[in-house]
User: Fold this.
Amino acid sequence: MLPDSRTRIRRMGVTSDDMIWYGDWSNGKLSRFDPKTGEVKSYEGPSGPMSQPYGMTVIDDAIWYVESNTRPNALVRFDPKTEKFQSWLIPGGGGIVRHMMPTAGGQGIAISMSGLSKVGIVDILPPNSN
Assistant:
């Protein structure tokens, strides 16, 4: 059982240390669940409690998700090692990104923009590249 009864999980991802990450849609948080201890740690998303995290994927242990209640939607990257967020507005708005997954080789993210009936590809650069 999760500690906050208002939590509404939309999507999940798992990092190499077996931590389960999920977007808490109703509270605007990114949360980590440790299945070994049952501990939950939550992080306030960059756009605050009304951001409604939705689509999510994990690439190289970084958490990527979309804040669906921002206009336009925002693509967010969270680095668990530094506990820092980065975010970018999605060109064309996004229209609520419900699903995301890495492209072959992990150099991009395929996103389904359900409100727009479109599929988008986000090219990502490896950390520390210019």
